């Protein structure tokens, strides 16, 4: 049986989202600072940016590699798929183009009833109106011996964490203070119970902290 | 010229105070969990508990030793001295008994006008109605080449941090989620600017993170 995994980048004050996006700078400087060491890794540049042979190696890259390994299915929130910006649009197929970087089935938690979308490269998007527990059960069944990722957004991740359904939480803590946004840690008092905690600091300054069971 | 230093224990979600105190358990379980690795060090047991030769050595103890070294004066809030519980009481001399563990002058930020208190062992408590900047200037002058500690509480520490007056902030981050209390990080967006950040993880699981300039 696989594990249920969450991986996130958060600031030292716990924020997983940023607030300084503008039309001219749609990611924002804070996002660049928050995710910089991850985006700079060889794995991210190869797997996501299509730039083979470039990027950093070492601890941040080891975590980036692990992020992509062993996943057989994913669950994500409606917002992450883009349904908040594109409600009721039958032509919307997500942010990732015709060949999304998943390569496995993805369940999108939404109140919208939509047919499944079969994309190139093995990704199939399913749209589920069930409880987070029932959707996870479907994803686990599809993943078989592989792991299930709870991909995001932050509220979806927090809901699965609060429900005790996550087996491994890895956070890359970037030592910056954002002061506002969505906090990963909100309403998760006592989460550590039942987990082993391990942490180490990369030369980039990112503290990699893992709760696992 | 000495540095201005702040040392605090915080939870992974940033809380520096705990909320589960009861008359039967005046420290509370959360405080024990938050400060456990620090209280267990050889330095804390020798210096604060009077138990020489006992306690842990290693990274947590190295930080505990550094905490006590090189301080020539301290600034603290009225609450830390006990003036919120003992307002207007001329007989109140702080929590620490006749021989407090400071051994140097301590300025207490308060609206109360009180005469200075000369204690055993070199500690003198001064009560200051000035701005945080002016009080710090007095403490710096008294400390000479040694450092000044901003001792606490958390609101006093945050006020000095927000005003850009702290040269070194060391936080021992205990990997537990308290979910409530006073957050160290509140309203400190961008604090990292102008600081070098260094972190490392002790075998106890505590992440020692230091902002210095």
From TrEMBL, chains A, B:
Tell me which InterPro entries the record gives.
DHFR-like_dom_sf, RibDG_C, Riboflavin_Biosynth_HTPR
Name the SUPFAM superfamilies on file: Dihydrofolate reductase-like (SSF53597)
Task: Tell me a Gene Ontology molecular-function term this record carries.
Answer: 5-amino-6-(5-phosphoribosylamino)uracil reductase activity
GO biological process annotation, one example: riboflavin biosynthetic process
The Bacterial bifunctional deaminase-reductase C-terminal domain covers which part of the protein? 3-187
Q: Where is the signal peptide?
A: none
- PANTHER family cross-referenced by the UniProt entry: BIFUNCTIONAL DEAMINASE-REDUCTASE DOMAIN PROTEIN (PTHR38011:SF12), DIHYDROFOLATE REDUCTASE FAMILY PROTEIN (AFU_ORTHOLOGUE AFUA_8G06820) (PTHR38011)
Quote the protein name from its UniProt record: Deaminase
């Amino acid at each position: 049986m696989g594990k249920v995994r969450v991986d996130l980048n958060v600031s030292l004050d716990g924020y997983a989202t940023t607030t300084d996006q503008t039309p001219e700078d749609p990611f924002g400087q804070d996002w660049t600072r928050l995710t910089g060491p991850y985006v700079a890794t060889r794995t991210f540049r190869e797997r996501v940016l299509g730039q083979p042979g470039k990027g950093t190696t070492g601890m941040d890259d080891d975590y980036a590699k692990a992020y992509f390994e062993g996943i057989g299915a994913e669950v994500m929130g409606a917002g992450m798929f883009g349904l908040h910006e594109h409600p009721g649009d039958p032509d919307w197929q997500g942010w990732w183009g015709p060949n999304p970087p998943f390569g496995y089935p993805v369940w999108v938690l939404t109140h919208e009833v939509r047919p499944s979308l079969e994309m190139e490269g093995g990704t199939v998007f399913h749209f589920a109106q069930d409880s987070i527990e029932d959707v996870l059960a479907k994803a686990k069944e599809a993943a078989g011996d592989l792991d299930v990722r709870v991909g995001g957004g932050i509220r979806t991740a927090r809901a699965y964490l609060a429900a005790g359904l996550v087996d491994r939480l890895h956070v890359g803590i970037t030592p910056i203070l954002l002061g506002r946004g969505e906090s990963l840690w909100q309403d998760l008092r006592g989460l550590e119970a039942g987990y082993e905690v391990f942490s180490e600091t990369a030369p980039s300054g990112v503290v990699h902290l893992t709760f696992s069971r």
